[in-house]
Amino acid sequence: MLQRGLKLESVHAWRDHSNYVNMLGKIHEIGLDSRTISPILQSERSRARSPKMKIKRVTIKDVAAKAGVAYQTVSKVIHGQAHVLPETEARVQEAVRELGYKPNHNARNLRAQRSRMIGYSWSSSETEQPNHILHMFLTSMVSEAELAGYHLLPFPYREGEDRVTGYRELIDSGRVDAFVITSVNYDDPRANFLVEQNFPFVAFGRSGTHDTFPYVDVDGAAGLRMATEHLIAGGHRRIAALAWRETSRTGNDRLSGYVEALRAAGLEANSDLIARGDWKFESGYEATAHWLTWSLEQRPTAIVAVSDIMAIGAVHAAQARGLTVGRDIAVVGFDDIPMAEYIQPPLTSMRQPIREAGRKCVEMLVALLEGRAPSERHILLKPELIVRQSSLN
Prior knowledge:
6-stranded parallel β-sheet
């Protein structure tokens, strides 16, 4: 009868005195005497007056107690700084999972005066075309940083003498712990500035042949060497190259692989068969259209490019002349962007290990920030030749 008579809103109303009085009236209406209901009311009033129970935060000492180790050991295991027995590490990780322990990064950051932010800036594309290489690199870095308890802080990219301004401002304000820099070129002012400031950073790319700072890079020379060797193996002897301007260190590195492969095969690196320009479609198209005005005995039978976009320009120029790409002229690109396999014919290209590069940049940077020596300070990753119809007879 009590459960049927008392409505839910009346039960909640027991929490203050005025509602308590109203409740007594409702009780008398349904015919219950005070001796029957008084113990229940008293219990509810006491419960309402009592403070709410606080959920206890799981601490590192709770994890240590469950794992049967010192709390210092737990801290080192969580932050990857400990050399402990595998079974000890397994016990700690199991305790972390069972207790749902989450490190208090705010407290740790205040003690260590750390932001746990990694600054990153990149040059924007001059066109509306999406940059798939940048997308893969960014997503890889974001994922790896999050696993280590860090986050990326994007900031505006500046050209010319102002290139170091953003880096200086972030260092002075204490908003970042380190940087990843990309599009590294000869005598790069950002790298020079960060070295002078003794501020942690890792470069995706190299500035010269004797870099002392930590870097991860894709071996562009090895990539174009493989691409050129693939064409030589297909019987081609007059192989042209679409290259970037002389000021591009990355472009020159890739082009050197082309020259090495020709010389190794006893072939001449003819300067007339090397066309330099920017990375755009038009550069590849115009250079190829020019070569195809030559006689059959002089013009190239194959073209290797330092980027897929330039290679696609070459494909279109050949098709505009009525040539069948693959049979009449072979074309190989570099990057293996998503559209490479969907053009006609599908484009042979050098696939860069971009996701691995992003992961290794952050992995190396976190090791430096946590006071651990990276296993390697200079990493060169090999690209992979993806053979498709554009280079097959």
